[in-house]
Amino acid sequence: MNPRILIVVIIGTMVNVFIVWKLYSSQQWRYVKLYRFFSLEAILLLLVFNFSTIFSVEKFSIVLPGCLILVIALFFFLSAIISGRLLTSDVQFPTKGIYAYIRYPIEAGMFWLSVGLFLLQIDGTSLIFVALSCYALYEIIKQKEEIMLKIFGGDFAVYAKKTKRIIPFLY
To answer: What is the pTM of this model?
Structure first.
């Protein structure tokens, strides 16, 4: 393995640990923390292993759909930030903005980021990383739903019936 790639992976992993540890310090979020780490780590590895493909002129027709999906991922991340929910720990769950359509825009952004990076270079390694990321995101959503139901009860159940999890109008 290229030493530069190894350094990027090590630094990225350290940042990942810091972000996950800082965002989810409460005991009830411990499993979400674990799955968030694995999801972000898989995305980091997808990015590192597919980085050269992103800027490949020869593969432009293959790279274009992946890049368009990356733009969709960016939309979900920015929508979550604009709705003011990315780094806050309010006791209220949001229902406006992107949250009027989906309950987990950050996870949606991570899902589309994984898929977009996978489409940049479809191979066995990328398939393993995208599968790991998607499984971890599924587990994050499952854990968050249980926690939100415990905290908010019927209000969250009503909200959950009106919205989808990560793909507007579908799932």
So the answer is: 0.79
